[in-house]
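Inverse folding, one chain.
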């Protein structure tokens, strides 16, 4: 039986992890919604906690004058099991569903990708241990919805299998993590044992962990990606890796080593956008590129900026939006410590700036600058009456990648940092300025607080990408527990409804619209939940409008909740 309570919230709350990939289903048609109300001022969110289990969840209001809450109970036995090894299930298995699956899920698949194995033996018997969350060997999972038989067919597979094999076949003295904890070795030990990244002699590619996002890249197919210019092509049926490719294969000018883990596919035109750049001191070329539906790739624009760590880009109908935060790489530290996490430097006095690049001409149409705030994931962007509206997740401390060292996340049982959702309104885009950035915040850029309890890993209805919209679905803290809830936020009011499943760690929510929808939230939300008490997982389906559980498929195994997902029609 579901109960609810309304809790005013004023503190920030989140987990670090990012927008999901779009629904690639050709039978869905775009719909328009009722008029939207613009957010005009910051306001606290109202969160309704929906408890679906008899197990009691205690929740108390946070005081207006304090960021401290009273003690809460989430009834988790061991949330650190998220960072234990998960076994793959490569053969498809069918499980029955309790409740009712929405008819439009039939013959569709939901994929999850993320770290799954954190300890493996080296050739010499010494145990390799992931020292950073993003070094966990990644696993790809799929869930096929059979509505006719009221069942879900699941399977999973380690997709970074060559990296796993490299660990098994390499002595511990000859192997290093991509992200090394500063506390793992002393400076002199690191200096004396430094080795360049290992290359797979069979493929000619470095051993990489493809464990962040899943994207459909025209001409290449279904791909697992990370923050690099090398992608892994995956069989969407068997989940087996089919090979790797560099973006330079799409266009020889795309020779850099870095790229956005989150590229953007325009569902209307079939065009895929991303950015490639290199990491070295000084200014580098950021190559904005577009691959059309036939797989032909052109360089849209080349921009000179200092090398930064960047994670996502987004688009509107007319523009590619590039957000430059001062997340710099200290190359001396990188050379000496071998740790990308430890080499991040953030000169906040530089502020942030957003470039609007014409998708058609490649011209930088305008540049907007503001005092510093962090951002990594974009929620949505759209054009409105000559303005560009961009919604982002902003998490304090997000730039400190050492916060995700395994010794920290396992000890605290949660991921920093807490986060808000900001709406950035860039006014009179093509008429207000001459396009040159100012050293002071632009008068034509306004930053509005939408929610102070935004969570992270935002997804929206794919029918409202690049359009004015109302609802976003995020993963959030609950009772100080990492990924303890998922929530639905109304971006016009800041109000939110939160779903909690006691005893469970939840994954990124994926919204799936109903083909017959008449409102933006007509549809369902898919959530992979890990039961830390019985130590198995379940695929949960929520009604998106009421945000309550309508069906569940309980799995006989535990599966990692993962980082990002993808939903599409089964081939």
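Residues assigned per position:
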């Amino acid at each position: 039986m579901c109960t609810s309570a309304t809790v005013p919230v004023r503190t920030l709350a989140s987990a670090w992890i990012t927008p999901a990939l779009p629904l690639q289903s050709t039978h869905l048609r775009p719909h328009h919604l009722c008029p939207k109300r613009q957010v005009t001022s910051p306001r606290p969110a109202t969160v309704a906690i929906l408890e679906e289990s008899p197990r009691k969840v205690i929740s108390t209001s946070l005081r207006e004058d304090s960021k401290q809450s009273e003690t809460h109970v989430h009834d988790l036995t061991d949330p650190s099991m998220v960072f234990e090894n998960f076994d793959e299930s490569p053969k498809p298995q069918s499980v029955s569903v309790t409740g009712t699956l929405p008819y439009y899920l039939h013959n569709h698949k939901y994929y999850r990708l993320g770290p799954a194995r954190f300890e493996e033996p080296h050739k010499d018997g010494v145990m390799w241990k992931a020292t950073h969350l993003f070094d966990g060997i990644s696993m790809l999972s799929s869930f096929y919805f059979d509505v006719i038989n009221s069942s879900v067919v699941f399977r999973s597979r380690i997709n970074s299998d060559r990296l796993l094999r490299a660990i098994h076949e390499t002595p511990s003295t000859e192997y290093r993590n991509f992200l090394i904890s500063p506390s793992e070795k002393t400076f002199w030990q690191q200096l004396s044992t430094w080795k360049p990244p290992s290359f797979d002699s069979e493929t000619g590619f470095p051993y990489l962990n493809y464990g962040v996002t899943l994207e459909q890249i025209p001409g290449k197919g279904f791909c697992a990606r990370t923050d690099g210019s090398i992608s892994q092509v995956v069989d969407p049926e068997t989940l087996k890796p089919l090979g790797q490719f560099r973006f330079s294969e799409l266009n020889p000018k795309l020779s850099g080593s870095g790229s956005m883990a989150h590229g953007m596919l325009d569902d209307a035109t079939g065009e895929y956008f991303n950015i490639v750049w290199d990491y070295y001191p000084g200014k580098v070329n950021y190559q904005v590129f577009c691959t059309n539906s036939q797989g032909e790739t052109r360089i849209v624009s080349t921009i000179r900026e200092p090398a930064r760590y960047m994670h996502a880009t987004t688009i509107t109908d007319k523009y590619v939006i590039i957000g430059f935060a001062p997340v710099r790489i200290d190359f001396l530290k990188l050379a000496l410590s071998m740790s990308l996490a430890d080499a991040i430097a953030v000169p906040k006095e530089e502020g942030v700036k957003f470039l609007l690049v014409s998708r058609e001409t490649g011209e930088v149409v305008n540049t907007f600058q503001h005092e510093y705030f962090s951002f990594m994931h974009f929620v949505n962007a759209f054009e409105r009456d000559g303005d560009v509206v961009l919604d982002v997740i902003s998490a304090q401390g997000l730039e400190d990648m050492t916060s995700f060292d395994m010794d920290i996340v396992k000890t605290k049982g949660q991921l920093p940092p807490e986060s808000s959702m900001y709406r950035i309104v860039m006014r009179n885009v093509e008429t207000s300025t001459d396009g040159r950035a100012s050293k002071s915040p632009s008068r034509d850029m306004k930053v509005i607080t939408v929610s102070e309890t935004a969570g992270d890993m935002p997804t929206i209805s794919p029918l409202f990408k690049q359009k004015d919209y109302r609802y976003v679905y995020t993963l959030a803290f609950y009772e100080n527990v990492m990924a303890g809830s998922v929530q639905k936020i109304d971006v016009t009011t800041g109000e939110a409804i939160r779903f909690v499943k006691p005893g469970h760690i939840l994954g990124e929510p994926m919204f799936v619209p109903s083909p017959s929808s008449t409102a933006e939230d007509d549809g369902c939300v898919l959530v992979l939940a890990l039961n830390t008490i019985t130590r198995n997982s379940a695929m949960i389906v929520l009604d998106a409008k009421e945000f309550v559980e309508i069906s569940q498929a309980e799995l006989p195994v535990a599966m990692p909740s993962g980082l990002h997902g993808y939903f599409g029609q089964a081939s």
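The mean pLDDT is 80. Residues 45 and 495 are 5 Å apart (CA to CA).
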